[in-house]
Amino acid sequence: MFATAATKGALKILSPAPSSLHYTTPMNPPLIDLLINVNIDLEDFQSFAQARGRDFAGVFVIVELDKLDSTVDGVYEEVGRVEVKEAKVDVDANIAKILPGKRSLRCSLVTAAGDVYDSTVVDFEVKDREGTGRGSNVDINSWNSLGVEVGSEGYEDYFSQVYRYKVWSDRGKLGSDSGPGSNLEVTNGVRRAILDVLDTNTVSRIVDVPCGDMTWMVELLPVLKDRGIRYLGIDVVSHLVEEHTAAYTNGEFKGTAEFRRLDLTKEELPDIFPGDLIICRHLMFHLPMHDNLQIIEKLGGSAANRLMLTTYLRADENERDFVLAMGHKVNLFRPPYCIKDPSRLVFDEQEDMYTGIWDLDGTTLLGESCQGNGQR
């Protein structure tokens, strides 16, 4: 890929800039290499070096790509650098995190002391030639919590794209495609808590929303089968539901497990009964406040006996703008939620993250202390 833009001073990026970059990718996108040709006016540059005198030591061409987790324009992360040895410099940058959508890169001439001699920004669009599936045209980075406009298919398109590009697992390097928080080693606490609830002999079914890629929950399916407890996995991503249905409903766990596609923010829950334990883990980290409020009311007001939700205890990010896929630290005990105290809190094996267990009686879980704050 080559890029160019009008530049000032001595820094020049050669070769035509594409208005759109196309690449072909399977479900596991390959690494993408970025090669930028940079031409430097050495006479001008040497004058600059002479003016610096003894303070001058080395100059680098640095390439940066816009950060996926930032809702603010102009925030970049370095993806490649090379020391200037001659007038023409090739920078080979690894931009494996690039995703379909509108992107920009910044190329800068920087001294070893960190002073920027010159810089230019190139805007371009990335498209996937094979992107014909659900959500293939979604720009993941453009959906932020304060400005997101959910389309007709809404979150199904968005989170289908997140799973397609394995955003949460960094292309599979971090384990579960639902994110590192779904790896077995960090779910010991929540799995023990679920088993403790099952030991009360009051649970006839687990309703797991969202079920994600089932990395950790599949460990509990044999226990549920042995105890005659049914499992309903719900997710907004169709291909996950289809894969799980094929994998778990016709074999060993036939009669125990079933799966449904559902957008919890817009659609009504399936029939919920006394004896149901609803588990909603890590979902609200990726949704705006107004959706989270509806979810709490919907789940908390259901006929289920118990509800498990994840929350942070000390975080204060409820009103922070964030890219949905990158998430934020939801604290259910702070406005606009002010949720009632749970019967139990379990450490979720990540800093400041806990799973709360609420006994439900059909009334709201949202606390009165938040009423009138203008956000409900």
Largest sheet: 7 strands, mixed
Identify low-pLDDT runs. 1-11, 13-33, 372-376
Indicate the mean pLDDT: 81
Total helices: the number is: 6
CA(first)-CA(last) distance: 47 Å
Helix content: 10-25%
Strand content: 25-35%
Q: Work out the number of β strands.
A: 15
Question: What sequence of helices (H) and strands (E) makes up the elements?
Answer: EEEHEEEEEHHEHEHEEHEEE
Class from helix and strand fractions: alpha/beta
Strand order of the largest sheet: 11-10-9-12-13-15-14
Shape: elongated
Rg of Cα set: 25 Å
Q: What does this entry look like structurally?
A:
By secondary structure, the protein is an alpha/beta fold. The protein has helices at 42-52, 155-164, 188-198, 221-227, 238-248, 289-300, and strands spanning 11-13, 20-23, 33-40, 59-66, 76-83, 88-94, 101-111, 116-128, 205-208, 230-235, 257-261, 276-280, 306-312, 344-347, 353-359. A seven-stranded mixed β-sheet has the order 11-10-9-12-13-15-14, covered by helices on one side. Strands 2-8-7-4-5 form a five-stranded mixed β-sheet, with no helix packed on it. It is elongated. 34% of the residues are buried. This is Methyltransferase domain-containing protein.
